[in-house]
Amino acid sequence: MSVANKDPIIPSHQKHVYHYVIDKNGDWFCEGNPVLDRELLKILSASLFEREGRYYIRCEGEIHPVDVEDAPLWIKYVYISKNAEGEIEAIDIELTDGRKETLRPETLWLEAESSLYCLATRKNLKARFGKIAYYEIANHISWDESAQCYYITIKGQAFPISNKEKTSK
After folding, report:
1. Could you tell me if 63 and 56 are in contact, meaning their C-beta atoms sit under 8 angstroms apart?
2. Closest CA to 66 of 79, 75, 57
3. Are the CB atoms for 78 and 133 separated by under 8 Å?
4. What fold is seen in the domain 20-68?
5. Quick check: pTM over 0.85?
6. E strand segments, 16-114
7. What is the pLDDT of residues 153-166, one digit of tens each?
8. Which of 71, 75, 111 is nearest to 93 (CA)?
């Protein structure tokens, strides 16, 4: 789509600006058409970044805006490592694009009391736990009556899970 560009993040010399959307289920669309190619999804997801509260992709020297209805990244699976005593040593997450990394439990938060999020990737982007990942990790979340909050214990340390959105860095 060729448009007059008014977004300061997008270079003024860029001739085409394509409009991407990540819907509330984590599905990608370009100019209203679903992006179904797995390799393209990996490229797009890996090129995501956030500036001034808005999301963009940087691809082949161009920058395109991405409207995000919920979270730009989604967590498909969690992998929980336990020690011989059955205590959690680490939790790894797998994003829907196939990237894997260790969960940073201090970034966990709840929205609407039932949607679990964290910050993921070196870009600190908002990532939502999909159903499978959510139910797997939920089995290891406890309620602290005195603090009135949920928490998860990893390597013997309890990490509170806030009820407000964390902000990207």
Report:
1. yes
2. 57
3. yes
4. duf1285 like fold (3.10.540)
5. yes
6. 20-22, 28-30, 33-34, 48-51, 54-59, 62-68, 73-82, 88-95, 100-102, 109-111
7. 999 999 999 887 54
8. 75
